[in-house]
Structure formats: structure tokens, C-alpha cells
Specification:
Elements (H helix, E strand, L loop, with lengths): L1 H10 L2 H21 L3 H29 L5 H29 L4 H22 L2 H11 L9
């Protein structure tokens, strides 16, 4: 996944990739809620795996850039702890939703959750003043003279 993320980050900024990854995961999870068969479930969950791996790599990279070099180990440890907690909570909650509501419920719940995260990412991260300044820099026209 690092190979893919490396190629993507050479073409797009990380804030844009984070927003797109979160939105792709939300759409894919919604597909889970609407899928009619196991075959189509496998098809619609493929983007979930891709966006999850991409997002994990991007978040680790972004977190390490957001702290001082002395804090990198601590922030990565905290990030790994939160990720481990989600790997405990999600299967328990998903199993309960499957049993109590139906096969569509984990996908619908995940889609609503990730849609909320998408809104948060766009409002708080994508529209952050630093990200806005980076967008302005990348849009600014380059000076090209006729003699070049």
C-alpha cells in the first residue's frame, strides 16, 4: 500500500487524499448496506480495503509531520492504540448489528459514521488555513515569458 500512497502523494496533496479516502470508504460501506449477494458484497468492499489502507498510511504520515521529532514515537503509539481499540469494538458492534438488525446494518452504520467523518474532514482538515494556503500556491500561475 505504501507504493500506491507514494505515487498518489506525488500527484495530490495529503489533505485531498485523506478527504477522498474517507468519502470512498463511506460510499463503499453504503454499498454494503444495499448489496444483494455475497459476490456483490466482495465487489463493493474492495474500495473499503483500498481506502482503509491508504487512509492508514496517510494518517500516519500526517501525524508524524504535525509533531516535533521528539513526539513522533508517542503520537504513533497513540495512533496504534486507537486503531487497536477500533479492531476490538468494530467486530463486537458489527456482530451485534448483524444479529439484532440484519446483514445490511453494519454497512449502513459504517456509512453513516464515515459520512460524519467525511464532513468533519472537509470542514476541519481540508478547509484548514494551512491547506487553503497550499491550494492557493498550487493554483498560482507560473510566470512564463515569451523569451523562454
Amino acid at each position: 500500500m505504501n507504493f500506491l500512497v507514494g505515487r498518489l502523494t506525488s500527484r495530490f496533496r495529503e489533505d485531498v487524499l485523506i478527504a477522498v479516502s474517507v468519502a470512498l470508504m463511506a460510499v463503499s460501506l453504503l454499498g454494503w448496506a444495499l448489496t444483494p449477494s455475497v459476490f456483490w458484497l466482495l465487489v463493493v468492499l474492495t474500495p473499503t480495503a483500498i481506502s482503509g489502507g491508504t487512509l492508514n498510511t496517510l494518517l500516519s504520515s500526517t501525524l508524524t509531520k504535525a509533531v516535533t521529532p521528539q513526539e513522533v514515537g508517542g503520537i504513533l503509539g497513540l495512533s496504534a492504540s486507537v486503531e487497536s481499540a477500533t479492531r476490538i469494538i468494530a467486530p463486537v458492534l458489527g456482530g451485534a448489528l448483524l444479529q439484532q438488525v440484519g446483514t445490511w446494518a453494519p454497512g449502513a452504520f459504517g456509512a453513516v459514521l464515515m459520512l460524519s467523518v467525511t464532513v468533519y474532514v472537509v470542514v476541519k482538515i481540508y478547509n484548514h488555513p494551512i491547506a487553503a494556503a497550499l491550494r492557493e500556491q498550487s493554483v498560482a500561475p507560473a510566470h512564463i515569458s515569451a523569451s523562454d
